[in-house]
């Protein structure tokens, strides 16, 4: 019986993948396509939503282009504040940045409704699969493949149902062998 379990583990597409690392599951870093809601005290014309462009920037009144891709929301607040201080436009700028609509994620493979799904904060692999209609009867349940972009590189990892997902992730549910 142990030989069958070992054989099944070796032949699984997930067998050779490393688990999702803590580093790639840490605080979300903004990417092109994400929407930010920016409020700047005393600069009313800047209070609106901004979509991060393909170059990783947003264009703010008075500051022009600000590079934000790869930063957390708090880091974006600090970068905008530094820009106002450096240009001597505001002495003590009060900046609020909130995520608006973040990029969707994708679920493919052995789920009932594969495709693009809107991301919600705190989603796990299980909630993503549920949003995709749940597992099919042929699905290998419990572990999936997650493809995530980390520092501009695609990283393939295996994940359990309680792994947190991020915007832009691609989740693949494989067919079970037995």
TrEMBL record:
Signal among keywords: yes
Pfam families registered for this protein in UniProt: Poly_export, SLBB
Ranges where the Soluble ligand binding domain occurs: 105-152
Entry coiled-coil feature ranges: none
Lineage top rank: taxon: Bacteria
InterPro entries to which the protein is assigned, alphabetical: Poly_export, Poly_export_N, Soluble_ligand-bd
Keyword Ribosomal protein: no
Polysaccharide export protein N-terminal domain: residues covered: 23-98
This protein's UniProt keywords: Signal
PANTHER family: POLYSACCHARIDE EXPORT PROTEIN GFCE-RELATED
Name under which the protein is recorded: Polysaccharide export protein
Organism: Qipengyuania pacifica
Lineage: Bacteria, Pseudomonadati, Pseudomonadota, Alphaproteobacteria, Sphingomonadales
């Amino acid at each position: 019986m142990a030989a069958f379990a070992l054989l099944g583990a070796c032949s699984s597409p997930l067998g050779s993948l490393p688990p999702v690392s803590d580093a790639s599951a840490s605080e979300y870093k903004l990417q092109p396509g994400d929407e930010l809601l920016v409020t700047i005290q005393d600069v009313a014309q800047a209070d609106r939503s901004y979509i991060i462009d393909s170059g990783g920037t947003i264009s703010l009144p008075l500051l022009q282009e600000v590079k934000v891709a790869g930063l957390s929301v708090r880091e974006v607040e600090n970068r905008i504040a530094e820009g106002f201080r450096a240009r001597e436009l505001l002495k003590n700028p009060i900046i609020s940045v909130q995520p608006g609509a973040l990029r969707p994620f994708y679920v493919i493979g052995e789920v009932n409704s594969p495709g693009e799904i809107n991301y919600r904060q705190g989603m796990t692999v299980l909630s993503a699969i549920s949003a995709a209609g749940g597992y099919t009867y042929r699905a290998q349940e419990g572990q999936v493949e997650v493809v995530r972009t980390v520092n501009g590189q695609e990283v393939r990892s295996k994940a359990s149902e309680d792994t947190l997902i991020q915007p832009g992730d691609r989740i693949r549910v494989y067919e079970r062998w037995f």
